[in-house]
Amino acid sequence: MPTQAEPLYSAHPSMFKSSPLLFIICVVTIPVLVGLIVIIGWYIKTRSERFTITADEVQYEVGLFSKQIKEMKRSSVRSVNVDQSFIDRIVGAAKVTIYSAGDEPEIVVSGLPEPGRLRELL
Length: 122
What we know:
Helix content: 25-40%
Radius of gyration: 27 Å
Strand content: 25-35%
Number of strands: 6
Number of domains: 2
Distance between the termini: 90 Å
Number of helices: 4
InterPro entries: ABC1_TM_sf, YdbS-like_PH
Oligomer: single chain
Largest sheet: 3 strands, antiparallel
Order of helices and strands: HHEEEEHEEH
Shape: elongated
Structural class: alpha+beta
Subcellular location: Cell membrane
Pfam family, one: bPH_2
Membrane topology: Multi-pass membrane protein
GO molecular function: ATP binding
């Protein structure tokens, strides 16, 4: 015979059995939510970068809360490489690498639109 402190039955409600439709909806939407989080992060990353060409200089800013700014005079640009993969050509974007006097690139930016126009400006 059980004692007073020993439970005769103890259980947690089953998530699936108590509401199977809600459970299935939640399981199906997990990949959608993960994808949404990735897209939001990607959007924030792209909005925290800016590539600017003025009459005198080329400027690349990176950062949301703290900023890193690379500037160089347009007259010191020695070489511009525009790399496009097959997908980049379809969507009209490119990876742009700008060199000045040194061997190392000064500025490297991926995903810039209108690469032909950009190359003409530099």
